[in-house]
Amino acid sequence: MRKIFYPSILFVLAFVSFGKAQSQDITSEVVSNLNTHQLIAQAEEWDKQGEMTMNATWVNFSLDMINEGYWEYNADGSKRWIYAFKSPGALAMSLVFDYYHMPEGCELYFYAKDKSWIEGPFTSNQNKAHHIYRTPEVYGDDAVIEYREPAGVTSQPRLDLRGLLHFYRLI
Hints:
five-stranded antiparallel beta sheet
């Protein structure tokens, strides 16, 4: 079942932090249990048979910003949400949203947990009529999604995460 995350009045019920969360200090949730060696062997077999080259596999993955991740509320009225996750064995990962709508002024980042690779900010500039969005790849198997909202934003993002692409070769 896909979850939709809508920041709302329920923020008040979420865990409130007075310290600054660092992505490397947050435990990563394991979102897949794939056998990379088996995936590579299967892809190589398909290559030998002249079939389409496969370099990634789909992982169903959804989030709920209210109940998962870590919220930080700042004295200036801005807020930040971070969620760390891991797809063991991935050479890179990419997120796919069924519905992406980011309010003006807000930013979404997707980066390797060690910050060796950072993609973003994704902003309202990525809002499209079809609402589908796929992030560029982030290298590694341990990553972070970070949402930043400045003070005074009254509209809410709608981010329906469909899943992720787990790249296992030729990246």
